[in-house]
Amino acid sequence: MNCDIIITNGLIKTPGNPNPSPDDPGYVIIRDTKIFATGLMAELPAEITAAKTIDASGCLVMPGLINTHNHCAMTLFRGLADDLPLMTWLQDHIFPAEAKFVSSKMVYWCTKLAAVEMIMSGTTTVADSYFFESDVAKALKEAGIRAVAAQGVIDFPAPGVPDPADNIDNAAWYIEKWQGDDLITPAVFCHSPYTCSGETIQKGKELARSSGCHFFIHVAETKSEVEQSLKQHGVSPVQYLNQLGVLDEETVCVHCVWLDDNDIEILNKSGAGVASCSKSNMKLASGVAPLDKLVEAGIPVGLGTDGCASNNNLDMFGEITTAAKLHKVNRLDPTLLTAGTVFKMATTGGAKILGLQGKIGELVVGKLADIIIVDMQKPHLTPTYDVNSMLVYSASGSDVKTSIINGRLVMENYHLLTIDPDEVLAKVNEMAKLVRSAPSPEQSPG
Amino acid sequence: MNCDIIITNGLIKTPGNPNPSPDDPGYVIIRDTKIFATGLMAELPAEITAAKTIDASGCLVMPGLINTHNHCAMTLFRGLADDLPLMTWLQDHIFPAEAKFVSSKMVYWCTKLAAVEMIMSGTTTVADSYFFESDVAKALKEAGIRAVAAQGVIDFPAPGVPDPADNIDNAAWYIEKWQGDDLITPAVFCHSPYTCSGETIQKGKELARSSGCHFFIHVAETKSEVEQSLKQHGVSPVQYLNQLGVLDEETVCVHCVWLDDNDIEILNKSGAGVASCSKSNMKLASGVAPLDKLVEAGIPVGLGTDGCASNNNLDMFGEITTAAKLHKVNRLDPTLLTAGTVFKMATTGGAKILGLQGKIGELVVGKLADIIIVDMQKPHLTPTYDVNSMLVYSASGSDVKTSIINGRLVMENYHLLTIDPDEVLAKVNEMAKLVRSAPSPEQSPG
């Protein structure tokens, strides 16, 4: 029996054994793109031969993490502007920087940087929402990371779409180009209910529906957004989207910080998923999403880092630990959002909202082989009594040693195999020099 | 001119140049235990010779971080019990585990594990509060980390102090033993106003005063503690301590989550410092300390990890980023606790509350050489526009490459020079086996 990769001697985290014991090391066999078999080392079939063997002694073998919201190319703006009032940050810093520096080339290289960072910290699938999305897709494909990559649609001149009248056609062109790819799933991203007209949102969703794609939209991120929606439309952003008819199981509502009980009921009935970004919501002081209520209602929830301008890193382990702790302190209840619950959000929850349930998110025979190996022989992971606790409260992205995506080894023993990180860093640093030397808003004549 | 260590080609973060540019690399010269000189490479005196040269090209050279609250030995209980109601966690898990497993030997080895973790993540000074404190001091001294180590005092039978009547004498013995050490500063830790009588607290503070030591106490950590204090003493915990006469510049009030304006005024007048532990307060759902108000009032604030049972790691970078973001979202104000402000809390703020201002916390000629070197050539730290932003919002402890404490190189290029981490991990894992096999509270006959 030939297979492609066999991982041996690791603690194998499966749905049936979420807290594997060091006394019972196991194996995972990968054939082509899929998980072919898992089990205990003591029961490893003798007739197995593999092109590649990875010894995972002292390591945890687990599903890769799923980042359900990112604007990958914004790595260029990491730390460009912090600690500012939201509108100053957005209008005086981020929007001008985007207008000036976002190009096809910038998106390609800065998305590659995001891919380097994500693979090195244990993410195997990312949902991206930005512009020049075909360049995003190209960069992520080359890096070997799985992605749901959504082309941005907005009612203003945008990078790559100078005339907003072209935004839907542009998205349609992009979807057609990438549909059918084994790693990249194209999608549509209408920026928000306050930057897209109702008509644009409906057209965007229509395109997504007719192409069998997912639809992403920022919703109810800030209190002022909700107030504005009430004033303009007489209803909350969630109710407004519901009235537009765009909420269904293929829609991902990003943020969902300010929801009332009625909004939660609407989301629940619609089947829409929520991508929650705790760190970004904290840093921008947007608020705390009612994740406990969403979970209780049975609404599918995934976690996301958001872009680097508002986080400022792409480590999903940071997102997991923050989600677990933020909701506890917010409601003064230490039993909320247990380690097991947030771990699921970062794996099966993410898979579900991205329409990839059944394909990724768990180490189960027949699912795609998106697997990471975490080195548990670290001082800060010693001792480990419970694997979920270790992952959520002690570990960080830098503990991820090896990564396999779609059956392909993309990082081995901390060494990237699909990208030359030095080249990527050099390219982005070159662009950052231009950003650094651009006049700051205070100095600019305007 | 001979010196001991020269660090070359780094970005040198000094009070006068908090955001050093890669275009102006500099040097730091160390003689004996102190910083002898700093400057730009272009101006490096030609006549300098050093026993050891460290090339910090592409790295940030900065003051080591100061962890102002830890129970180091509790690494053994990392992740033993999470996501539980506070009293269940404490009374059914942590207290029984401490009663059963805390010994002189356990404290020594588990503190060594904490030292490994802390040095590897950039901490150069720690304030510890536990029992068997002489073993804590011995372990930290051998590891080469600077510490203010406070012997625990509590009105219950405690590890190493079976008869509470001996608690002050025991602390006095410990202080005498360690006073005058160049790395370890002994201190007194009365556990809290609800576990120590007023008399015990006053005796503890008296001992600290007469020995010229610092005094630590947990204060106002939970809402129920404040309610209990109001019921029992008619005043808040801070007011109660003030009435006992134990608040002064040599007192560190740990947590201070539930403070009213009157408490803040009392703290401010007293000169007492606050050690704030955001991650622990989040995980245990204790609440959010009013750090912005403390800063505004001019009260000295340091940051701490708390022990591993409630965090569950000792990475001060995690503490910094959490403090910055938690207070923003708590007050819905993104301008609160800027990167620069929390960086100071983790360095000069910590030094101040521990009585080490003027000695550590800044790269200044004449101060003790407690220095860390952060590798900035990492994907998640690229690009860097502002060093404080990078440290607070993007970096983690695993980016710390080299550490010097008291002029001694303790970690070089990620390799520990003072401790054998494998030996420490093996010892702690051995003890953890016993913890793992102990009957859980549900199974125990009681």
Task: Name the features.
homodimer; 446 residues; alpha/beta; Urease, subunit C, domain 1; TIM Barrel; 2 domains; eight-stranded parallel beta sheet; 14 helices; 17 strands
CATH class assignment of the largest domain in chain A = Alpha Beta
Q: Would you give the CATH topology of the largest domain in chain A?
A: TIM Barrel
Give the low-pLDDT segments of chain A: none
CA distance, first residue to last residue of chain A: 69 Å
Tell me the β content of chain A: 15-25%
**Number of E-type strands of chain A:** 17
Largest interface (C-beta under 8 Å): A-B, 71 and 71 residues
CATH fourth-tier homologous superfamily of the largest domain in chain A:
Metal-dependent hydrolases
Helix fraction of chain A, binned, reads 25-40%
**Which oligomeric state applies?**
homodimer
Query: Main β-sheet of chain A, in a few words?
Result: 9 strands, mixed
Shape of chain A: globular
**What would you call the structural class of chain A?**
alpha/beta
Alpha plus pi helix count of chain A: 14
Radius of gyration of chain A: 21 Å
Count of structural domains of chain A: 2
Mean pLDDT of chain A: 96
The second-level CATH architecture of the largest domain in chain A is Alpha-Beta Barrel
